[in-house]
Amino acid sequence: MRRDQWTRGKGPGTTASAMTASADPQLVPRLKQHVDRLAGLIGPRTLSRPHTFTAAVGLIEQELTKAGYEITREHYVADGHDVVNVVAELRGTRRPDEIVILGAHYDTVEGSPGADDNASAVAVLLEVARQLRATRPRRTIRFVAFACEEQPYFHSHLMGSQVHARRCRNQGENVVAMLCLEMLGFFSSEPDSQRIPLSMPRWIRPWIPTRGDFLAAVGNLRSWRVAWKFRRGFKRATQLPLLTLALPESISEIRRSDNSSFWDQGYPALMITDTSFLRNPNYHLPSDTPDTLDYERMADAVAGVAGAVQALAGR
Q1: How many domains does the chain have?
Q2: What is the rounded CA–CA span in Å between residue 281 and residue 285?
């Protein structure tokens, strides 16, 4: 476990956000566009409105295709509806049978447009895929947009990530790391804007900052090696603060997304998150709208996650 220095640069010209934006001046506008389309144009993405799933899948496939990927649809049935996980791969050059998965769910709870939960993570997924398309990783990188993470499917066999993780195990795939992107867009530098779950052991609490201006990379105890490699790659690519933790699964908060599906199959996995309801007051509410997000720091997240994926997949 490690804690960063939480102060950013002394002026706007020294921040990681400024460096990321200067590297790709269109990154922030693209992130805004992805979120606006998912959370604004499409809105709540639930199977009570099947056309919203269809629209979200179409948007994700369009962006991945534009980036140069071939798309595979992983079909299954949930409550009588045909739903899909969207899959794209960048095949490894030396160890293609070793797979690094980067995933994010695209659905929402009823009544929430889901800008942070989870359009922000889908936007980061799409932009990381765009950045890595021209690379030649040693290991295969697989990008997956998952269906049905939210209730009533959460922690059931109908979660898209449960379906994919079971198929990985049944096919004997060697998933060396799974990175779950879960809410990456809400930040606050206000004092006491970050809460700490009551289930967190007392000895860890002093290491968790009280300002919500960081991302967290959280794994179970078996995933500590992946957490360390993720951190090294992330910190080489951006100055965005990162809290890195490997914790027992008895702390229920760390099982609240698609990473837990891969733990269930014995694969190492991390949840990369802005800490969700521990920070964002709009969690699962109609107020989770695109205008509440920090797109400059989301651009930092793109840089950091891309760097971490490269570190895990091998350059």
Answers
A1: 1
A2: 8
Rounded distance, CA 72 to CA 130, Å?
17
Question: Is the separation of the CB atoms in 243 and 215 below 8 Å?
Answer: yes
> Mind listing the pLDDT tens digit for each residue in 139-190?
999 999 999 999 999 999 999 999 999 999 999 999 999 999 999 999 999 9
Domain with 168, as residue range(s), is 16-313
- Reported as a single tens digit per residue, the pLDDT across 66-82 is 999 999 999 999 999 99
Contacts 24+ apart (CB under 8 A), 87-90: 87/142, 87/143, 87/144, 87/164, 88/64, 88/129, 88/142, 88/143, 89/140, 89/141, 89/142, 89/143, 90/129, 90/132, 90/133, 90/135, 90/137, 90/140, 90/141, 90/142, 90/143
94 within some domain: yes
Q: Is residue 3 part of a domain?
A: no
pTM: 0.93
> CATH no. for residue 255?
3.40.630.10
> Can you name the residues that pair with 159 across neighbouring β-strands?
none
Structural domain contains residue 9: no
Residue 140 lies in a domain: yes
57: tokens are 């899948």
